[in-house]
Each structure stands twice: as structure tokens, then as C-alpha cells.
Automatic annotation (TrEMBL), chain A:
Enzyme Commission no: 7.6.2.9
Xref: InterPro entries: AAA+_ATPase (IPR003593), ABC_SmlMolc_Importer (IPR050093), ABC_transporter-like_ATP-bd (IPR003439), ABC_transporter-like_CS (IPR017871), Mo/tungstate-bd_C_term_dom (IPR008995), NA-bd_OB-fold (IPR012340), P-loop_NTPase (IPR027417), Transp-assoc_OB_typ2 (IPR013611)
Domain called ABC transporter: residue spans: 9-239
Top-level taxon of the source organism: Bacteria
UniProt cross-references to PANTHER family, sorted A to Z: SPERMIDINE/PUTRESCINE IMPORT ATP-BINDING PROTEIN POTA, SPERMIDINE_PUTRESCINE IMPORT ATP-BINDING PROTEIN POTA
Enzymatic class: translocase
PROSITE patterns linked: ABC_TRANSPORTER_1, ABC_TRANSPORTER_2
One cellular component term from this protein's GO annotations in UniProt: ATP-binding cassette (ABC) transporter complex
Organism: Paenibacillus nuruki
Keywords associated with the record: ATP-binding, Hydrolase, Nucleotide-binding, Transport
TM region positions: none
Assembly and interaction partners: The complex is composed of two ATP-binding proteins (OpuCA), two transmembrane proteins (OpuCB and OpuCD) and a solute-binding protein (OpuCC).
Protein name from the UniProt record: Carnitine transport ATP-binding protein OpuCA
The reaction(s) this protein catalyses: a quaternary ammonium(out) + ATP + H2O = a quaternary ammonium(in) + ADP + phosphate + H(+)
UniProtKB/TrEMBL annotation, chain B:
InterPro entries associated with the record: MetI-like, MetI-like_sf
GO annotation, biological process: transmembrane transport
Domain of life where this protein originates: Bacteria
Protein name: Thiamine transport system permease protein ThiP
Residue span, ABC transmembrane type-1 domain: 66-271
Chief subcellular location: membrane
Compartments, record wording: Cell membrane
Keyword Transmembrane helix: yes
Organism for this UniProt entry: Paenibacillus nuruki
Keywords for the protein's UniProt record, in alphabetical order: Cell membrane, Membrane, Transmembrane, Transmembrane helix, Transport
GO cellular component: a single term: plasma membrane
Amino acid sequence: MNTTVESQLSIRNLSKVFKTGDGVRNISLDIAKGEMVTLLGPSGCGKTTVLRSIGGFLEPDHGDILIRGNSVLNLPPEKRPTAMVFQSYNLWPHMTVYENLAFGLKIRKYKKPDIEREVTAALELVQLSSAASKNPTQLSGGQQQRVALARALLLKPDVLLLDEPFSALDAKLRMEMREELRDIQTLTEMTMVFVTHDQEEALSISDRIVVMHGGQIEQLSTPQEIYDAPQSSFVASFIGRINVLKGVSDGQHITVGELRVPNPNVALPIGDCIVAVRPEDIYLSTQAGGLEGQIRQVMVLGHYAEISVNYKEETLKVFVPREQAATLHPGQSISLMFHKMNVFPAISVSEVAPRQEAHA
Amino acid sequence: MMMNASVKKGILGLALVIPSFLILFFVVIVPIVYAIRESLIDENGSGFGLANYIRLFTEPTMRKNIIYTLNVTIVSTLLSLVISYSLAVYLRFGHGWVVKWINRLYFIPMFVPGVIATYGLITMYGNHGWLSRLLLLIGIDTFPKIIYDYNGLVLANLWFNIPFATMLLSSALAAVPNSVIESARDAGANIGQLFFRFVLPLSYKTMWVAITFIFMGVIGSFTAPFLIGANSPQVLGVAMQQVFSNYQETHTASAMAVLMFLLCSVMGYFYIRTMGKEG
Ligand SMILES: Nc1ncnc2c1ncn2[C@@H]1O[C@H](COP(=O)(O)OP(=O)(O)OP(=O)(O)O)[C@@H](O)[C@H]1O
Ligand SMILES: [Mg+2]
């Protein structure tokens, strides 16, 4: 991103290491106004740590955090132009849902009718109009989470921080809330940092995704790029379904079993490598010439089918259109070829390699 | 004879309640009724009426004693509350070694028997106590009168009540989650709003428990005021003892006891009303 244009949120070389040695290191990130950036990664990779540093609840060891060009490091949470939806909701048990929402507006000296209008609208938005006079303890986890979302949205922060805000919702509601949030975001042009460990959620909601692993940024790209061109085997295996095979590189070519394809990745060291292929990028054929496998299972899943193919000791997953699935049956010998694949150095999990793609 | 389940349950419940009710009856209710009856009999034994109570409120010494008692009680209660609340807040939200040490030390006074503590106060603050002698060493020879005075009494009450109240309030504040404080700050609450809108409401009930216990303890106290209180006015506990044994006016003493009981009941009423509230 262009850092000469003022970013809404700019994180520079942020490090926060706990006594235990866990934490985050060297996080740099620029987020434009109105952008929705997702921090994605497995549990314990440091997503909450980054978010809490932005919100002012953790003091970083190194680095700086700027909002609209000004460092906020010396501001306490109550003075930062951020609002947070906490992973554990953090509703106030001694106030009703309505009071929970109204509090922030009250201390911002809003007039009573304005507060009433805004709170009512926010409750409608999260589909909880009937819960206004209830106590947070009388709500389900999912309902509490939606109240927490409404409460933070009402504050109209410069940067909205969301820590797994939909984790307690069922699949249907989660999808609805996701769309709702994206609409709000487009409408209000609110800048959002969204934390999730759900890759599907990240792919569907974000302008850009930050894939984190072990306290560091593994890749920062658009969802499309993350999916199509993962820069490490970690990203490849974390995002979407993927088959991982062992290969050997001689510099010019990659050999996977009987297949030999040109190697487009000059940076790949000679020797063992990892070949990652998405299920939709595998082509099944009755004609020889690819990897020789045997169909183990055919599972029709609506408009497409998932085929399990035994290849040596591995079981590969292949997605095919339903029409083709009708011609396939368990036990059948089949040849596998790849439309597209990603190759990575064999040992490295976290090292960032240049873009690697090959067509076979 | 047929007995349905609910009747059986009722009988069982009654059987379980009866022992404690009997104890309550003989240990609390009977003495109270007896004291009320006694208090209504005129001191010269002539008749039945409110004469003793009228005396309590009209006779200057008695009136002074009552006002003095209320004064000592209310001031001691408020001071204890403010100090222990501040201490509890500091212990809950503060950091560092000072907090650690206060946490280890603050309840020690609870383990010192009242009589011993009172004598401790006398040897420290007394006219020839070590504090005055210490001050004399550095040239200050005008030592204020603390012991055998109002101040000494309040000081003793603080000594007795702060540790316990701090302990109560600390446990209440420990139950206020950090997450609540964090989200309140995130919403923009400053220190004052944090305290009055979050910490106080979330520890309000325990605060009333503390107030009630301090109040009851102070208003009925005897040992400390007997040892270091002024000769006049006196707190009700000491005055009652004198009226009872020095003047042998049992009926007046009973009236004083009933009055003290009524004052405590007022407190008890507020206590029960607060505890009854939801949330
Ligand atoms: N206050 C703390 N003290 C010590 N270690 C901590 C603290 N907070 C977090 N950690 C550690 O730092 C690492 C990152 O934690 P963090 O909460 O940021 O993970 P996360 O990505 O949000 O995980 P999750 O998806 O489970 O919420 C973890 O290993 C965690 O154990
Ligand atoms: Mg987290």
C-alpha cells in the first residue's frame, strides 16, 4: 500500500512479546479509510494481541500505531478513536441491553431523543429489538455478541475492532450478520479490523486478509490472491481445501510421481519440495498420462461432487461437476492431472517465497 | 389416612424449621418482648407508659448520650467505609509491591483482641504515651487530646472496622471483571464514570453489607468506649451499663436497649431491602 497517502490505521513494526515468549513480532500494516481488513490465523497466533494493542489494552514493546497519521500509543483506551467488539462480548451486567447501547452516547453528551433513535435503530440492525429491556445475562451467547456489535457500531469510531464477533452465532445467522456488517461498512465507510480463525468468513468479508502464523504476518493480500497464490505452504493449507504432495525439483522441472512439469519458481531450491493442489484444480481422466490412482469414494454434494482418490499412500480430494461424477464409480482406475498447482520448499513453513504457479 | 405428597412435604419442612424457630424465639424474641415490657414500666414501679422513653429524650444527659452515640456511629461508619472502600479499590486496581504488602498486612488488626488493641491505642496516643514522648524529643510539647475523647473513640472504631470492611469490599471488587472495566474504557468512560457507573453499582450490595455491619458493631460497642471514651457524654452501651448497675434503673436501661434495637432495625430494613433487589 502507498504509505505516503495518509492511512486511516497504520501499524509499524509492532512487537509485543509476553513473559512466556508468546506474542507478536514485527507486524506492519496500513489500512485505508473504509477498508475491511481481516486478521486470519489459527488459535494463539496473536490476532487478539494485535487488536488489543490497537485498542490500547496492551502496551507494545516496539513499534508504533497511528490513526489518521497520529500516534495513539500514548492515549489510554478511553481517548482512542477506536471501538472494540471483544471476543468475550464484555457486556455490562448491571445495565439493560438498552443502557448498554446508550452509555457511550450518553457520555458523548447526545440528546435523549437522539440516543433513543440511534439505539433503537442499532437494535433493529442486529435483530434484537425485543431485547431492549432485558438484562445481558438473560440473553444467549449469540444475542450477547450481537449486542456487543451494536454497542461498538454506535460509537462510530475511526477504526472498529472486531474480535471474532460472530463466533457464537449459528451458521445461518452468522451469514446474515456477515452480509449486514459488510453493508454497514460499505454504507458508512467505517474502517474495520476483523479477527477470525474462520477462513471462509475471511474470504467472504474482507478487502484484504492478513494471514498470521506464530505471531507474524505470513501473507497480506486480497482474498483472491491469498486463495490463488498462497505465498507459503502454511497459507496454502490454511486457506481453502488443498491436497499436499511430495515432489522433487531439479531446477527446470518438478517431478511428482509419474508427472513431470516445468518449474516456474526460480527461487525454489533443488531437491525435495511440496506441491499443493486445490481439489478444483485436479482433472480426472480415463486416459493415462497423469498420476495413476484409484477412486475410493464418490460423494455428490449438490451441484458438484467430491471424489476421493487413492494415490500411493495418500488420499486426494477432487471436485468435479455432477455430470462427470455420474460416470465415476469406486474401484475405478483413474488418471490425475493438475490444471494449476503451487510449489513450496520442502522444509520451510513460514518462509515467504515468491509467487509460484505452474500449469500442467 | 391418606396424605398427598405436598402435605408430606409441608410437614417435613415444618419439622426442619421448628428447631431454629424455637432458638430464635427463646434467644431473640422473648428477650425483646421482655425488654419492651420492662421499658414500659415506670422507674418508680407505679404504672405502665412511655415515661422512660420521654425521659430518654428530655433529660439533658440522656439526650446528649443519644446524640453522641449517633454522632460517633455515623462518623465512624462513614469514615471506615470511605477508607476501606478506597483501600479496596487501590488493592483491586493498583499494581506493585505496595499493593502486595498491604494485601498481606491489612487484616492483621482483626486478629488482635479488642481489649488489647484498646490498650495499645492508649499506650500509643495517651498523654504520656510513646507518640507524645516521641514528639517531645523533637520539641513538640503540645500533644492533642486523643484518648478519653471523641477522636480516640472514632480512631478505635476505625481500627476495629476497616480491616473487616476492606476484606468484604475487596472480595466484591475482585468479582468485578477486568473485561467490564476494559469495555467501559473502550466506550470512553473516564475514571469518575468508571467508578460511579461501573465499580460502585457492581459492588453496591456488598457496600451495604459493610455499612450495616459497621453500624451495628459501633452502635452497640462497649469495650472500647468503656476504656477510652470520655466520662460525659457517653455512648449508649456504656451509659446503659451505668444506668443498669450504678443507678439500678433497670426500666430506663431497658428503654435504652429498645431504642438501640430500633436504630439497628432501621439499618436492617435498608439492608434487607437492598439484598432483595434483583441483580
Ligand atoms: N496476557 C498474556 N500473557 C501471556 N501470554 C499471553 C497473554 N495474552 C496472550 N498470550 C499468548 O500470546 C499468544 C497469542 O494470543 P492471542 O490471544 O493474541 O491469540 P489469538 O490469535 O487471538 O487466538 P484465538 O483465536 O484463540 O483467540 C498465545 O500463545 C497466548 O497464549
Ligand atoms: Mg483471540
